[in-house]
Amino acid sequence: MADVTDELLQEFKDRLHISHKSEDSHLERLLSYSYADISDKCGSFPLDTANQGKELVLERSRYAYNDALEYFDHNFLAQINSFALSNLPDEEVSDETTQV
User: Fold this and answer.
1) Model's pTM, two decimal places?
2) How far is residue 91 from each of residues 40, 97, 99, measured CA to CA in Å?
3) How far is Cα 26 from Cα 43, in angstroms, rounded to an integer?
4) Alpha helices for 1-100 (secondary structure H)
5) Are 47 and 57 in contact (CB under 8 A)?
6) Which of 54, 74, 89, 97 has the largest count of CB atoms under 10 Å?
7) Alpha carbon 21 to chain centroid distance?
8) What is the mean pLDDT of each run of 10 residues along the chain (100 residues)?
């Protein structure tokens, strides 16, 4: 699982308007599980830079926090597919395009 940085945790807390620290370990687990799920679907990616993968991790974590995780894949299917395609290694992309 991904190491959740303090900066990522704070960014997530800011999105949810959480100012206390009592849920920090729970929020870190949500972020870590979300990274594992998105990276399983789309391939690994850095969480320390702004990218589509990081946004998906934050959104999936928000859904998990609000007990609505069953809706995430359906609501973000286009973004997941787009990120998965853009996150393919260069040689896989070129191999697939030559086969068509």
Assistant:
1) 0.86
2) 19, 10, 13
3) 24
4) 6-16, 24-42, 52-65, 72-75, 77-86, 90-99
5) yes
6) 54
7) 22
8) 86 97 97 96 90 96 98 98 91 56
